[in-house]
Write a structure and sequence with these properties.
The chain is of the alpha/beta class. The protein is built from four helices and seven strands.
């Protein structure tokens, strides 16, 4: 389990990455306007059954954050949709942070690779805050090709939203029910 300093370092790096991305986007001091991420799908298809399954899994993790992976045959940027959800144990056991159990994550990622599949989305919940990436989420975002889905249990019904996080730039992706 990471020390508190590791979480703070991730949050700090996320805040710095977001500031740099905003400066590039606005053409801030000494900055030429840069294009955004290489891809930013406006929407992505999420089957209703998988949506229900992942919300149920995340709800089962309360009062702590829950986490998991949506697996697909192709990435969202390539028009792919998820085909299965894999709920993961939150090794952080915290209402403020999630950490996929490293051994479980390795096992699932090896299986995904062996099956010629992709991580379509990384999923986690926010217990009492909006379904928007926190500075820590941005700092820990290590899969630029995957979507990031965040489910908020701050109100009923839970709210699920999707995002791309690439080099500190955060863009919303509308989740289309199918």
């Amino acid at each position: 389990m990471p020390e508190v300093s590791a979480w703070q370092e991730a949050a700090d790096s996320g805040a710095e990455a977001r500031r740099e991305a905003q400066a590039r986007a606005s053409g801030g001091p000494g900055q030429a306007r840069q294009p955004g991420p290489p891809w930013t799908p406006a929407s992505a298809a999420l089957p209703a059954a998988l949506r229900s399954e992942l919300i149920d899994w995340l709800r089962g993790g309360l009062p702590n954050e829950g986490c998991g992976l949506l697996i697909g045959s192709r990435l969202a940027e390539d028009g792919g949709a998820p085909i299965r959800f894999v709920g993961m144990r939150n090794a952080a056991v915290s209402p403020y942070r999630y950490l996929m159990d490293p051994e479980e994550q390795l096992r699932v990622l090896l299986e995904v690779d062996d099956n010629d599949e992709v991580v379509w989305a990384i999923v986690h919940s926010h217990v009492a805050s909006p379904p928007m990436p926190s500075m820590t989420d941005v700092g820990l975002a290590a899969y630029p090709d995957a979507l990031y889905l965040i489910c908020s249990f701050a109100a009923e019904p839970p709210e699920l939203r999707g995002w791309t996080i690439v080099n500190g730039a955060v863009n919303e992706v509308v989740l289309e029910p199918v």
